[in-house]
Write a structure and sequence with these properties.
The complex is a heterotrimer of chains A (184), B (431) and C (312). Chain B has 13 helices and 18 strands. Chain B is an alpha/beta fold and 431 residues long. Chain B folds into two domains: 100 residues, Urease, subunit C, domain 1; 306 residues, Alpha-Beta Barrel (TIM Barrel), CATH 3.20.20. The longest helix of chain C has 20 residues. Chain C folds into two domains: 136 residues, Rossmann fold, CATH 3.40.50.1370; 149 residues, Aspartate/ornithine carbamoyltransferase (Rossmann fold). Chain C is built from eleven helices and nine strands. Classes of the chains: A alpha/beta (184), B alpha/beta (431), C alpha/beta (312).
């Protein structure tokens, strides 16, 4: 599907600033920073999580481990998909038991991904708390879910798409609002 | 009532006739043959554009009656034969009870007399109950009306028993027909042994199981100076053996079926049980050898091995399905399209193989030929009419035919038995 | 790559990318079995019927566990508990189970082609759990997963399959799979159990195990059914073991890092000596372990997504 770019809502400078601000908030809010672990939701949540972990290391000299969560097996729209999503590995090489888990994703939309991610996390152990960090909250929630740390609140229409690009896997850092072509 | 067939192209291999002639039939006989016949009070069939052949004879049919009337009866089988262009059929003895005594032969003939629209010639079994042990009372059976002897799908395993049967056949001047199969070699096989049986994971029946028995039979026939007819040749090696035997003037004749000519073992890909028969569909090389055998005259006869089974019996896993396929109503169109239209053999040779030769082999004196005084059994063919095979139009009780949906050129349109119309396709009108 | 098949009838109908998809998916499922909570909710509400007309422990329990780890509901029926034994036709039995609206039927049967036969009148996803001497696709897939874990790639691997090739569905599915993935396959066994026409599958044939085993990367031993001896497929167990049994002495001719596989159940001391079966080179139990992840992958890939057009 081709898509049309409608607006660039974040460039690399703005993104850097947002990540930095959220990291400071994390440090402020979690007195026992050593109990925090980061779990990034595939795919871009992983890289955001790593950036935050690196930044904490820089600021506080504390190593925060980053795990990878694949939520495919916890989705609630399994039967409606045209074809199955490829399942990838969940790679969390540490225990989440009694930890303060920081769940990281790029965009918060309906909340269904986060619901799946929380179910998945709880199957891996019983965290003390789960906090949610997203780079962009675009609204339109379908479940009672709210992020603890938000890079940017972005009002959107439902048919628009929000795309976050990270230079680790994309060409550069930016966030875009796009619209599928052929839709008016 | 007299029947006058006008303007048809009469082909009779026995008299090397191939010309446009009128035929007048009366009291079951051909009474006149001329370029133009004028007569009053005869029913007239306009056979312009049609070929008139001596009535087709199928030497290998299973009528299932008595005993398995859910598959076929003498009445339905004979209707199927008439629709398929056959005026005479020989029916195999593997009924329940087996046709190994006068009673069964007489039953078949009396049923045929009452219900059949074609001539029916019972083949009796060589041994009692087809068990391969004790010979049947062959002379008595011949007297009752048996035309030949065969143990069909349970071929006589004991060579000494076969030898004695051939010796008796010789003095009784009758024919032994053998389904050649060494049951030890074929074992639990369900399809031809070879690449495709390995690919599909099905147990194989090696070609050697047929070759060995054909070889044995011709050796025994030579010593006994008896006549032997090899049913449904299917492998190249067996064709070679028959060819060699004929060179040595051993009295051997052989038949092939449409399925062994036009299908091969690769077709079983979808485990279609309508492709399960015995002998099984063989390899492509084997089908080519059979075609060559037909062209060279090694193979004498075309037959169907019509073996009806109910849909329920065939709608099972391949291993469990009974062997055999329905064939009376598709054979002639298959031969006309695949052999004659494709110029593999001439129309004359085809008629010879499906009428003249079977009549000679079964010693049906007044059949298989068109001449004054011959039986008024005729098959009228339309060489140009195209049909699509549809099992739901079958007169047979069964539907187990693998040629469903095949588009073929040429078909039998009128079948005349004993001077009467036994079957006429709806497209033909008679006045 | 999306997996577009509705059924899993055999390896023959899969392409190399399908096989890779199954293996990649299975790899992702491997760690679920080692977690505290060995279950994910993805197939919640799906109903699966295991229909085994032939005895089995490994495959049956492996499919059961795979289904349960994906939260599907599964029931298992064997020949004794089915009505086939009361004279019901196979088609009727399967149609009756279909009427209970399962999402998938996993079928094992002694007759080749039964899973295909089922697709001609069933709506649900049909999975072949072994049909006669035809195919056993999940076994080949779990074998492939095991080989890939140990050898990384299939390209130019020398894989020996040794034993009763003629009657083995495991051999066939493995031949198809390994050839599709670029391995070199050498079949070894007596001619009675390894007809020369198997060459047409694009494999090599060797009747001399000692020669064939040289430089082998993978040695896959097949179970020899002892009842074959009665039909003279081989003269005696002793003779078979001497010619085609895997012993330490023979194994020394293979590559140093060669692995030993066996689909089970093993006849210790017949096709494989006990010390070989238990040696560090043996991955036999790893195969069993991988069986669950592989079958989870198959269930996930077949039952996921919208109803698809039937591509076998």
């Amino acid at each position: 599907m081709k898509e049309k770019i409608k607006a660039k809502v974040m460039d690399s400078r703005k993104m850097k600033r947002a990540v930095h601000r959220m990291t400071t908030e994390i440090i402020e809010r979690n007195r026992n920073l050593k109990n925090v672990v980061i779990v990034g939701i595939r795919t871009r949540g992983i890289y955001l999580g790593k950036r935050i972990s690196n930044l904490i290391k820089e600021l506080e000299k504390i190593d925060i481990p980053v795990g990878i969560l694949d939520i495919t097996l916890y989705r609630d729209d399994f039967s409606e998909l045209e074809a199955q999503n490829m399942v990838k590995k969940t790679e969390i090489n540490f225990s989440v038991e009694k930890k303060d888990v920081l769940l990281v994703d790029d965009v918060l939309f309906t909340g269904r991904t986060i619901r799946a991610a929380m179910d998945s996390l709880i199957d891996l152990g019983r965290p003390k708390t789960i906090q949610l960090l997203v780079l962009i909250d675009r609204g339109h929630r379908e479940l009672p879910i709210r992020a603890d740390y938000v890079g940017k609140f972005l009002p959107t229409s439902k048919r628009e798409l929000v795309q976050v690009k990270l230079k680790e896997i994309d060409s550069n850092d930016e966030a875009l609002i796009t619209e599928p072509a052929g839709m008016k | 009532m007299k029947l006058l067939i006008k303007n048809g192209r009469v082909i009779d291999p026995s008299s090397r006739t191939d010309e446009s002639l009128d035929l007048l039939l009366d009291k079951g006989r051909i009474v006149d043959i001329k370029t133009k016949i004028k007569t009053d009070g005869a029913k007239v069939i306009d056979a312009s554009r049609l070929v008139i052949a001596p009535g087709f004879i199928d030497m290998h049919v299973h009528l299932r009656d008595p005993g398995q009337e859910d598959k076929e009866t003498i009445a339905t089988g004979s209707l199927a034969a008439a629709k398929g262009g056959f005026t005479s059929i020989a029916c195999m003895p593997n009924t329940h009870p087996v046709n190994d005594n006068r009673g069964v032969t007489e039953y078949i003939l009396s049923e045929a007399n009452k219900k059949a629209v074609v001539n029916i010639f019972p083949v009796a079994s060589i041994t009692k109950g087809q068990k391969g042990k004790e010979l049947t009372d062959m002379a008595d059976l011949i007297d009752a009306g048996a035309i030949a002897f065969s143990d069909d799908g349970h071929p006589v395993e004991n060579s000494d028993t076969m030898r004695r049967a051939l010796e008796y056949a010789k003095i009784l001047n009758t024919l032994i027909i053998d389904h050649c199969e060494d049951k030890n070699l074929s074992g639990q096989g369900v399809m031809n042994e070879g690449y495709y049986s390995y690919l599909y994971g099905l147990r194989g029946i090696p070609g050697s199981s047929e070759e060995i028995m054909v070889a044995r039979d011709v050796i025994l026939a030579e010593k006994a100076e008896a006549r032997i007819h090899i049913a449904h040749l299917s492998v190249k090696g067996a064709v070679d053996i028959v060819k060699e035997a004929k060179k040595k003037r051993i009295k051997v004749t052989a038949e092939v079926t449409p399925h062994h000519l036009f299908l091969n073992d690769s077709c079983i890909e979808t485990y279609n049980t309508n492709l399960k028969m015995n002998p099984p569909l063989r390899s492509k090389e084997d089908t080519q050898a059979l075609i060559k055998g037909i062209q060279e005259g090694v193979v004498d006869v075309l037959a169907t091995d019509h073996a009806p089974h109910t849909p329920d019996e065939k709608d099972v896993e391949f291993d469990q399905a009974p062997f055999g396929i329905n064939g009376l109503e598709t054979a002639v169109s298959l031969f006309l399209d695949r052999l004659v239209d494709k110029k593999i053999i001439s129309l004359k040779r085809f008629i010879e193989m499906i009428s003249t030769s079977p009549a000679l082999i079964l010693e049906l004196e007044n059949k298989g030929k068109i001449c004054i005084g011959a039986d008024a059994d005729l098959t009228l063919l339309d060489l140009h009419k195209e049909i699509i095979i549809d099992v739901d139009t079958f007169k047979s009780k069964s539907r187990n035919n693998p040629f469903q949906g095949w588009k073929l050129k040429g078909m039998p349109v009128i079948t005349i038995v004993g001077g009467k119309i036994a079957y006429s396709s709806s497209s033909i009108k008679s006045k | 790559m999306a997996f577009k098949h509705k059924h899993l009838l055999g390896i023959q109908t899969l392409g190399p990318s399908d096989i890779t998809t199954v293996l990649d998916t299975a790899e992702s499922f491997c760690n679920i079995s080692t977690r505290e909570i060995k279950k994910v909710p993805i197939l919640r509400g799906k109903i699966i019927i295991n229909l085994f007309f032939e005895p089995s422990t490994r495959t049956l329990s492996s499919f059961e566990l795979a289904a349960k780890r994906l939260s599907a509901d599964i029931i298992s029926l064997n020949k004794q508990s089915s009505s086939v034994i009361k004279g019901e036709s196979l088609k009727d039995t399967i149609k009756n189970l279909e009427a209970m609206n399962p999402d998938s039927l996993i079928i094992r049967h002694s007759a080749a082609g039964v899973p295909y036969f089922a697709t001609t009148f069933c709506q649900s996803h049909i999975i072949n759990a072994g049909d006669g001497a035809h195919e056993h696709p999940t076994q080949a897939l779990l074998d492939a997963l095991t080989i890939r874990q140990k050898k990384k790639s299939f390209k130019n691997l020398k894989v020996l399959i040794v034993g009763d090739i003629l009657h083995s569905r495991v051999a066939r599915s493995n031949i198809f799979l390994l050839k599709k993935m670029g391995a070199r396959v050498v079949l070894v066994g007596p001619p009675s159990l390894l007809p020369a026409e198997f060459k047409k599958f694009g494999v090599e044939i060797d009747y001399d195990f000692d020669r064939a085993i040289k430089k082998a990367d993978v040695i896959m031993m097949l179970r020899i059914q002892l009842e074959r001896q009665k039909k003279n497929y081989f003269p005696s167990i002793r003779e078979y073991r001497n010619l085609y049994g895997l012993t330490e002495k023979r194994f020394r001719r293979a590559k140093k890092n060669a692995i030993i596989m066996h689909p089970g159940p093993i006849n210790r001391g017949v096709e494989i000596s006990a010390d070989m079966a238990d040696s560090a080179k043996s991955v036999i139990l790893k195969q069993v372990e991988n069986g669950i992840a592989t079958r989870m992958a198959v269930l996930y890939l077949l039952l996921g997504g919208k109803e698809r057009e039937a591509i076998n």
